[in-house]
Amino acid sequence: MTQSIAPEADFDAAPTLLDGAKNLILTAEHCNLSYWFTDVAQGTLAGRGATGHAPDAEIPDFMREIGNPLREALVLEFGFRALSEELATRVLSHYVANAPGIPEMEFFATQLVDEARHARVFREHLVELGVPRGRLFDEIEEMTVDYRRRVLGPVEEFTLDIVRDRKDFYGGVAVFTIVIEGVLAPAAELSERKWGVLNPAAGEISRGTSIDEIRHLVVGSTILRDHLLRAPDYRPRLLEILEAGRQLWNEVPDREYVIHREELFQKGMADHTDLLADYELWPGVRMLDTTPDERYDAAERWTDEMAESRMTFMGLPTDWLSGPAGE
Ligand code: FE
Ligand code: FE
Q: Which of 73, 102, 164, 314 sees the fewest Cβ atoms within 10 Å?
């Protein structure tokens, strides 16, 4: 018996993260536990449950060469993302605890598992790249010490204050949907496009996580839209939280970490021009012709575009978005 998978959860048919996040509409009621078991666990993840990629997805030998800048760039990227996803999982436990109803509780239970899975597949790929399993947790901890303290720590505190301490579930959803996921998602899209051609296994891992992120972004947005329709009085507080979150993100020094990885990527890319040839990172632009700054700026631009379309969907103003955000 073949069962049809919802197109947005189908590994091959799902839209790109940017398209999906801008154009899809999904509710928490629809994306309940039964949807998750059938369309995600047995759909998106069919054949990819253990590692996030198909067993025969290639990992080229150069990706396992110690000292290869591409390997270094990916170890850092996936190590950092593993930590971000781990912290996201832990924070989400408060969303489950404070969910106002069963649909929201079920949805956030699935999102919690999604993020725990993301952390796992990013970590497991480090082992596939040659990090000794016995050193895995220590290595991630060592490489992320500063990033955790300077970038993730402040964002985590900000979120916990709202969702755990003030028990403001909707404020928490806003922070997660617009600020946290909204900022990380464009980086994920970029990652998928960059690695798909150099390391197909890593490309599949990123693709699978992006499919989940589409759901997180659009369901979060729908929860907020519906809440604002029911409780228009909440609007000023919501805008205040979003503004504060946006400001916080502008203050944390994430750029230097991303640029460091992009510089390694740049060096590595130059050694593999044969593989890349005319591969376009976005329409009309060959990846080989892009610079670390251009790639970072593209992700920033996508962040603004996505935030703008989600805010419009929720009936919120977007004028402040490009204000203090410019670098
Ligand atoms: Fe995630
Ligand atoms: Fe997510």
A: 102
Q: Are 194 and 281 in contact (CB under 8 A)?
A: yes
Global confidence as pTM: 0.95
Q: Where are the beta strands (DSSP E) in 209-312?
A: 280-282, 285-286
CA of 114 to the centre of ligand 1 (A): 7
Domain ranges of the chain: 19-32+53-321
HEC string for 243-266: HHHHHHHHHCCHHHHHHHHHHHHH
Distance set, CA 119 to CA 48, 131, 180, 216 (Å): 15, 16, 15, 16
| Residues having C-beta closer than 5 Å to ion ligand 2 | 213, 216
User: How many whole angstroms from 255 Cα to the centroid of ligand 1?
Assistant: 20
Mean pLDDT by 10 residues, the chain (327 residues): 82 93 95 98 97 97 97 97 96 98 98 98 98 98 97 96 98 92 84 95 96 96 97 96 93 93 96 92 95 94 90 86 46
Secondary structure (3-state) at 1: coil
Q: Which fold has domain 19-32+53-321?
A: Ribonucleotide Reductase, subunit A (1.10.620)
In this structure, the number of other CB atoms found within 10 A of the CB of residue 102 comes to 12
